[in-house]
Every structure is written in C-alpha cells, then in structure tokens.
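User: Some background: our group keeps a shared notebook of sequences we're curious about, and every so often someone picks one and asks for a predicted structure to add to the entry. Today it's my turn. The entry only has the sequence so far, pasted here. Could you supply the structure so I can complete it?
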Amino acid sequence: MRSASKADASGYHAASINYSLLSLLAGKHLRMRLGFLATFVLLTPMLFGEGTPRVTGIDPAEGKVNETATVAGENLGKDSIAAVLLSDDKADFKATIVEQAADKIAIKVPDVKPGDYNVSIQVGNNIFIQPVRFKVNE
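Assistant: Of course. Here's the predicted structure to add to the notebook entry:
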C-alpha cells in the first residue's frame, strides 16, 4: 500500500511513515515467531520427558529363542518404553522384558524363526523400528 508523497509539518513523507510502520509490524511478527520457537525448544523436553527413547545396541548381537539379551540406549525406562520387539519386514514379535532401567532393558528372545530382525521399541501406541539388528539362531 502506497500513500501520497506529501510532506507533513515534520518534513517526513507519508509514504515513508507507512513503510516504517510496516517494517515495525513485520519486526514484531518476527520477534513473536522467534519467541514462540524459543519457548517450544525450551519446553519440549519438559513436555515429552527427558528425551526421545533411543536404542544404541544389543548384547549379544545374536542368540537363540528364550535366551536373554540386553538392549542398550537412552531414555528406556518404564515411563517411556511399553515393549521391546523384534521386527522383520512382515511382523513385530514382542519380547518378554526381564529387567528395565533408563539405559538398558534385558529381554528374552521371543519365539521366532531363525533370521535377522530389527530391534523395535513401543512408545505409547507407536512402534519405532531402531537401526539395531539381532540375529536369531537355531
């Protein structure tokens, strides 16, 4: 929007006043958006717990049905993780949790056929396949 370019008593043109007002409003909008972003970043850990659950490994990396394996990672406590599963490209198989702490979960290998599986975790109603593999032997 452009105004007439008549000078007022202060010597400023109306057009420059309108552009200054628009710049001021845009600056307020940007500051408001940055303030919202900063608030979101600061509050996210409080809203969603200490952090996102993450599996970093499994020991041993292979085993037989009903043997125990320990899943290592971050934020794996009972308040975050509902289940640990072994997943192939068709299905998810729930493992029995033997022991659970924030940094590790001991599981019994579920009754599955021999092969390679991804370790998955259930958070709420969602299953997240992790980039960690476990091989089930005969």
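Suggested note for the entry: The longest helix spans residues 14-47. The chain has one helix and nine strands.
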